[in-house]
Amino acid sequence: MGARTRPRFLRSFKYVFVCSLVIVLALTGMLLFIVSPATFHLSSPTTISQQSLPLARVHPYLTYDEQAGITFTQDFSSLAFNVTAVAQTGPDGVGPGYLLSGLTDAGYWYQVGLSWKWPSTNGASLPGFNMNYEVFDQFGISVFPTSGGGGIDTIQVNSGDFVLLNLSFTGTVVMQATDWNTTSSAAEYYPAQGASYFVGLPNAVSSNGFFTGLMTEEYHSAPYYGSGQPVVYQPNSFNISSAWVWADEFNTNTFQPVFSDATPSPISFGNASVLEYFSFHGMAEAISAQEFITGLSPIKLPLLETSTSATAHTGEQVTITLNLQNSNSLAIRVNSLIISTQFGVFDVSSSAPSSPIAGNSTFTTSITIPIGVVTGNYSLTTVVGWHFDPQLKDWIAPDPLQANTTITIGGTAAPPSARPPSTPPTSTTTTPSLVQTLLRTFLLPALLAYAGAVAVVVVLVLRRQRQQTLPGPIPTSLACRVCGKAVGQTMLFCPNCGSSLTSPSDSGSVSPRPQPP
């Protein structure tokens, strides 16, 4: 048996139903998207978490090792940084080391650096500037120099010079320091052990104490919380995309930490000219894509206070007063101002002072309470992004300032008594919401157009079905009044006798036309 064919009307109706279902689902999805409340996220200030400790040498008389450094997240085939030669010593009379470190893909850790009055194994300081170097195997054992404990090479450096620190692959790993001013240079070499690049760490500050990055290191005889003098590292030929920032101090005999802090995630550098600022236990660091600075003195952050009017109403503007107390007299520049509430997040950065603030300052901004907010008390958080000038060449961006206050929403409109007496009462109009505007502008016309289209399709289908099923007119038979033969309704003369079928006759007949022979 052949397949049974469905009536044409049912096929047409099925087509109309499917089209209707698709359009209804599309419009419903659009409506749900429009009326769904938007989710706003406000970044919180950076917090600090504990991280693992980088390796250090053991000095019998100087057992506390303080380190401030960064760990790169990207891989490098070579590393080259310029560092300023700063002659400084701590309370024990020994100075720091300014070190470049590279962890290879074979697991070996290479270090090269510049030091000032670096401590010897007996606790005494070595004279002047020197190049430091050391290599650790994948198990954390110092393998170069062979005696362990790190090596020292003599190099001619003056205080304030720029010194290039370099780690590169040439069959071996080259550890080199070169003074750009005196052209004095020193280099050491150790096998690469099959490695070809230095490994970045996007997910951890260190790997078993190893990392690829920069570090300022200084030894002390007792726990120390100090910053020293600023030391600037600058990449020689590339920019840093992101890095961990960290600082720690621990006992090199027991590995008991005094403190160990780091950023909870790598810092990405979108603006290469602005330094981001971090403070850890009496020391401070700053970093950008082009610079890393250690030895900054921690600053006392400005204090931010905010206040609002006692009661506000929906649809009205609320004035927010910000009081910035800058006891350090830093040159502060406000670059962003965000106000966060339960009924929305407002970017009012345009109302921030355009010129630097040198001391205490008070300024105002305002937000508009949206229509439809329920009456009650709401928390209001103000976050101020700011930079300060540490007397370096770049502005530093610390963590944002934040202050909280409470705002009271008292109703949908101000009470009549609040209007000025000279202002005549006016009719109250409600500003349509975004959803209402979208419904009127897009969805309602679309629904009406859709309904009209469906109606037209249904009418056309029914009319076509009726034309196919209803019978046509039944023709009526006619006869010639002269000869009686059947004739058609549209004929003017009888085809049999030639008599006129339209001319009247008193006798009901007409004379026959003469027939041809």
CATH topology of the largest domain: Jelly Rolls
CATH superfamily of the largest domain: Peptidase G1
Give the C-level CATH assignment of the largest domain: Mainly Beta
Give the fraction of residues assigned to helices. Answer: 10-25%
User: Radius of gyration, rounded?
Assistant: 44 Å
Q: Roughly how many Å apart are the termini?
A: 64 Å
Major β-sheet, in short? 10 strands, antiparallel
Low-confidence parts lasting 5 or more residues at pLDDT below 50? 1-19, 21-52, 416-431, 469-476, 505-517
**Using DSSP, what is the number of strands?**
28
Beta percentage is: 35-45%
Shape: elongated
Oligomer: single chain
Please tell me the CATH architecture of the largest domain by its name: Sandwich
Number of helical elements: 2
Element-level helix/strand string? HEEEEEEEEEEEEEEEEEEEEEEEEEEHEE
Structural key phrases:
517 residues; mainly beta; Jelly Rolls; Immunoglobulin-like; 3 domains; ten-stranded antiparallel β-sheet; nine-stranded mixed β-sheet; 2 helices; 12% helix; disordered N terminus; disordered C terminus
Q: Can you walk through the features of this model?
A:
It is built from 2 helices and 28 strands. α1 (8-35) packs antiparallel against α2. The protein is elongated, with a radius of gyration of 44 Å. Strands 1, 3, 4, 5, 6, 7, 11, 13, 14 and 15 form a 10-stranded antiparallel beta sheet that branches. Residues 1-19, 21-52, 416-431, 469-476 and 505-517 have low confidence and may be disordered. It is mainly beta and 517 residues long. The chain has 3 domains: 64-296, Jelly Rolls (Sandwich), CATH 2.60.120; 303-409, Sandwich (Immunoglobulin-like); 478-503.
